[in-house]
Amino acid sequence: MSVRVRFAPSPTGEVHIGNIRTAIYNWLFARHERGKFLLRIEDTDRERSTPEAVRAVLDAMNWLGLDYDEEPLYQSTRLAAHVQAAERLLQTGHAYKEDKGGTGQGECVVFRMPGTDVAYHDEVKGDLRKEAKDMKDFVIVRSDGTPVFHLANVVDDIEMGITHILRGDDHVENTYRHIALYRALEAAVPHYAHLPMIVNAQGKPYSKRDGAAFVGDFKEQGYLPDVLFNFLSLLGWSPGGDREVLTREEMVALFDLARINSAPARMDMEKLLWMNGEYIRAQSPETFARHCRAVLEQRGLWGAMCGSLADYGPGIEPEVYFRRVLALMQVRVKRYPDLADQAPYFFTEDYPCDAKAMRKRLGKPGVPEAVRLLRERYAGADPLTAAEAEQALRETADAAGLGAGALIHAVRVAVSGSSQGPGLFEMLDVLGGKRVAARMARTLSQLEKEGT
Ligand code: GLU
Q1: pLDDT tens across 313-331, in order?
Q2: Is the N or C terminus of the chain more exposed, i.e. has fewer CB atoms within 10 Å?
Q3: Atom of ligand 1 nearest to the CA of 153
């Protein structure tokens, strides 16, 4: 039997990570089994299923590389088939008509439950059963002639030849009714795997209130599609061992319904951020540069960088300078915007200054004087290599009777406005002697102004 699975979203607006995780699991299973991964848009809710909502689903799938086989099926085009199935059920005695409201406004079609227990084996949850007495007959076509979800869902799965249904475990209760429908329609019952819910730190269903919950949020916040894919694949599934960072090929090779956990999966944003950093570290310098440049351009920092280079050197092409900055920053950046947020001083003279760090590091007796002396040495050194920068700093600290550490901290704040960043001497090397000296001078005169 060749595997055919589907993702059957109801487009309602934005795409929740729980839904897209369902798509990912179906995709991984289909690719692992060399079967087919199909898409069915359950767009029968006329009010919520707008073209924009459908677009959001397609965009999210495209962004994550969830390619599907065959043309998508739009459920709204299948009304006649659903009604026809209901008529067949009426003919075979599996359904009856009833005037629900008793108002004479029209009859709905009600499915007759078989009157026996329904049991099935869930690939994730094990053997499940519901007793006959706990299952009531249910409406399959409303009095206005529209089919309900259960009928449309089952009829379309039969039409599409679906062999395995992987979906959220909020559908476990529906499954008993669906199985009864399959049997009444004399169709083979598919295999089921109900995926665990995604929960927040309190164990409650993960929602927008907990932070980013829609695929678009993660995209906007600078997460890579491969990272979101990798991360969501592990929310409920474990490939075995401690492996967490996996290529798509590895995930496809290892994916196994038997390794899906039935316990709720906790959303861990810190882990997601960590994983994004891991992926960024592993990127080629070219790829990293391309994405970072896009962020800089968006924020007007690319132009600022070119301007600052023209004014202060260090006499190299913007592209070359940019690569030198990135070589220092690639290991420190967890999301592309971090580059601009954490190290704006590489790109503009108009970077923010941490006033508290400034007072703390430069307010110590003897420090401003040492910074002034060191500034003179740096001003004359262009290019300023990391080794020279270090030697000059240590000599200056010694002569001033200061610890090298105190002067290192002071110079860092003086040239970057921040107390954090890559190694100071590499940073000075990249910025260039002329620019470093200019910034030190600016900081010192600022201090003097504040002192008077
Ligand atoms: N449209 C349903 C949902 O998104 C489909 C459920 C199913 O996969 O069968 O919950």
Answers
A1: 778 899 999 999 999 999 9
A2: C
A3: 9
